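Friendly challenge for the regulars: who can give me the structure tokens for this chain first? No prize, just bragging rights.
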Amino acid sequence: MARKSRKQIQVVDHFPTESPMTVGYARLSVNDRVENHSIENQKKIISLWAEQHELPISKFYVDVGYSGSTFQRPAFQQLLQDISDGKIECVIVKDLSRVGRDHITVGYYIEEFFPLKNVRFVSVTDQFDTINGLTDQSSPKRSQIRISLTNVFNEQAAVDIKNKTAFALDMKAQRGMFIGPRAPFGYQKSEEKFGQIVPDSEAASIVQSIFKLFADGMGITAIVRYLNQNNIPTPIQYARSKGLTGNYDDGNGSCNSRSVKYILTNRTYTGVLVQGKEKRVVAGTHEPLVDIKTFDTIQKQLQSKTFHLSNSSQGTENILKGKVICGCCRGKMQRKRGTNHADWHFFTCNTNNRLGADKCTGMYVREEDIFSAIYHQLKLYIQEHFISSLQYDEEMARLKAKLDAQVEFRHAIAENPAMYYEQFVLGEINLDEFKVKQQKIRQAAEHQKAIELEIEECKQAYSRFSRLCKVRDKELPLSIIMSDINNIVVDSGRKIVVQWEQ
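First reply, four minutes later:
Bragging rights claimed.
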């Protein structure tokens, strides 16, 4: 059986009568997630209004799966054709966004096309009816302004939908419903009850084993080694075995301390959900995998270990934290104090100890050697990217002259951008002419913004160069330029390569 397309049209082939009739138009895009945008709800709103105004609906035109940014929708095009054939006298929609989200094109249909064809147009929730608007010659200006503003607001509808969706998700989170795209490791989404998670027996046993091992006195590093030695799948590996698809980072394929610690500190395993930007906390939403007493005890142990490490290890600031990379396994190297707590430090790769000798050679390097390498390579970097004050002044003068010329040009083509829309509304220029003028204005603004960005980048580049020079001459501390360093790779033979931010 052929697969049915998501894009469907609901169009009646034959009109029930020969006389012009009242019709409804509804549209649902693929991205619509708000309940009041459903086709059923749109039809209800349209039908109720039509009934109240004694305008029986003869037919609905429906587009499903089409964005409001395009007007090449089958049902909408059929509607336009039937209007042109004189078969329709009134069109009713729930709101203007159902017609489209391009305010210029929507404005054309409402202000030009429908009046030309003597068709009444009604937008129910916008409280707009051309019988009291454009066709009311006592206040044409008022009605035109009203349409223009409404259509502009419709361009912000995507933001509104996003906010409404976020609100709906937050409400679900408050009710204890699971709103994540994928259940936490150890659970799966319930097939019987929407918004609920239930234990996945195989994965749940792994999670419970991790909690038990730690509670019995095994450290995180030892747990990682145990999981890898026993070929226990990582959460991502397990998810993929169950059919997970998508662009997820598999890491190096081995369990690591970060994922183990995440499991040990995740309150979800106590039957509590913490979700959303507001971090809504709802207890008793699902079956726990570990009791609260055990979980709380483990948290105290983890906090104690963290406090101990932060207060007993390093006597000086670790300005290289997260920057030193092992050239063998690409893992981050850890800073440690020298033998017998001497006043020196070194960096070492722990992958060898955690995962085995086949994963990494286990390199190390003294901290002072890294500092020496940074100063040496900093001098070479400055030589390669040298900028004199004269070069900087000349470049800034060139860019500012370019900006002044662009500003002058922009003012020349449009002192008052709103004037073009007024000309369009009054019929002094047609739609194509209006679009061309708008495009020129947009391009001029974009070009000006690009020049301004170029000026700012030039300023930042020279400021950065000046800062690097001051560090080279030791007028400023080395810590000042850590943000300018991407990574420091320690390769075989303890060769140190500084990778600068571009």
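Residues 315-502 form one domain. Confidence is low (pLDDT under 50) at residues 1-17, 134-146, 151-155, 307-315. Your move, everyone else.
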